[in-house]
Design goal:
Layout: H1 3-10, E1 41-42, E2 44-45, E3 50-51, E4 53-54, E5 57-58, E6 60-61, E7 67-68, E8 78-79, E9 98-99, E10 117-122, E11 125-130, E12 133-140, E13 143-146, H2 152-165, E14 170-174, H3 180-183, E15 194-198, H4 201-208, E16 218-220, E17 223-228, E18 231-237, E19 247-251, E20 256-258, H5 278-289, E21 295-297, E22 304-305, H6 307-328, H7 336-350, H8 356-374
Parallel strand pairs: 13-14, 14-15, 15-16, 20-21
Antiparallel strand pairs: 1-6, 2-3, 2-9, 4-5, 7-8, 10-11, 11-12, 12-13, 17-18, 18-19, 19-20, 21-22
Helix pairs in contact: 5-6, 6-7, 7-8
Bound molecules: zinc ion (ZN).
């Protein structure tokens, strides 16, 4: 565990932090391997022309990533899991438009994606980040337990990173939830691994019919212990939150939990809270707060301390209270006046979070959508 203070101290400061015996191919200044170049392009904010980053890590979109289309009833739309091409263009909120270059026809040239960032969190526990996405893996005496593959290109690089630290095979791939940008690409581990998910995720993954995304054969509803050699990890279902099938890979021995997309670190919850269950999400966060962990590994960006779960819970509570306050003062739901009022209330505490500007109006809409779908709920 001694590298954790080093890791946390380096958050936001050092890209490509390396601890341990990872070969230089993964160092920040080494040339990326060709496989990373097959179809990775930086996502640009067309308003500024600058690359977009997720959780402080530059985002290079790849096949299966989530982007937005103009063409669906005039509304932003999620697009998941299509391996054939990148989507071109899209609206990502009122203030930003993202463009993902089409690289169907030719391999990416010129602008190389950065090398993966591999961090040794504990003697047997590694965090892997690349192009905006994060996963982790645990090396046991009988093989490797790995989290999300994160799309076919990242999965190839993740596999290479694992091979750089151990000759043992990957035995389990644990899908955090059914969203394709996190769980596609696991085919690279198919020859040695079994695939694990929540029972509600497996049929959704199967329905995508993506040959490169093996369908989980091990599923559970509430809790499961995964044993490999002398290592035990706990897989926990903490209820519905960012999806109805998100699970937590909890490794008690190293006091770490891999929790994807529902504990954003220094960032707002994603956009319009689509496919979410906010009331139950709050309960999920309380369960994370109750775990004996020091570190949360998120699905995007760098790891952080457990206090981030508390911060996200408090954000939702403050958001809902600010909306209710605005209503009491007669401001119309989702009106610009309400948005201004909520923004002013939340700015002192959350104004420095990554997507505070673009996502706040969408989060407000997301709360109303949740209320419409599930009824009003109290946050007190
Ligand atoms: Zn997701």
């Amino acid at each position: 565990m001694k590298s954790i203070p080093l890791l946390l101290g380096a958050l936001g400061l050092v890209a490509g932090l390396l601890v341990g015996s990872i070969p230089s191919v993964f160092s920040a200044d080494a040339a990326p391997t060709p496989v990373a170049m097959a179809c990775s392009r930086p996502v640009l904010d067309v308003a500024t022309g600058q690359p977009v980053s997720i959780g402080g890590i530059p985002w290079y979109a790849e096949m299966g990533d989530t982007v937005w289309s103009h063409e669906w009833q005039g509304q932003p739309r999620y697009q998941f899991g299509n391996r054939r091409y990148h989507y071109v263009g899209g609206v990502a909120g009122p203030n930003r438009t993202f463009i993902v270059e089409d690289c169907t026809q030719q391999p990416s040239a010129g602008r190389a994606a950065p090398a993966p960032q591999v961090t040794r969190l504990a003697p047997d526990t590694y965090v892997f980040s690349h192009t905006g996405y994060t996963s982790m893996f645990i090396v046991t005496d009988q093989g490797v337990i790995v989290g999300d593959p994160m799309g076919p290109n990242r999965a190839q690089l993740l596999k290479a990173a694992i091979e750089a630290v151990t000759p043992l095979p990957v035995r389990y791939v644990v899908y955090s939830h059914d969203h394709a940008d996190h769980n596609s690409g696991g085919g690279v581990f198919r020859d040695t691994a079994q695939f694990v998910s929540h029972s509600l995720a497996a049929p959704k993954i199967a329905a995508r019919n993506d040959l490169d995304s093996p369908v989980p054969t091990i599923t559970f509803d509430d809790r499961m212990t995964l044993r490999l050699g002398r290592t035990s990890v706990e897989l926990l279902y903490t209820g519905r939150n960012h999806s109805d099938n998100s699970i937590v890979l909890y490794y008690p021995a190293q006091r770490v939990a891999f929790a994807v997309d529902f504990v954003p670190i220094n960032d707002l919850p994603f956009r319009g809270l689509g496919d979410t269950y906010v009331a139950e999400w709050l309960d999920s966060l309380r369960q994370i707060e109750a775990l004996n962990i020091d570190t949360i590994v998120p699905g995007h960006g760098n790891p952080g301390p457990k206090s981030h779960a508390t911060q996200v819970r408090e954000y939702f509570q403050d958001l809902i209270r600010a909306i209710e306050d605005a209503e009491k003062r007669g401001l119309a739901p989702q009106s610009p006046a309400m948005t201004s009022s909520v923004r002013a209330a939340l700015y002192p505490k959350y104004g420095n979070w990554l997507s505070f500007g673009p996502y706040l109006p969408e989060n407000i809409k997301g709360i109303y959508d949740n209320w419409k779908q599930f009824g009003r709920f109290s946050v007190n």
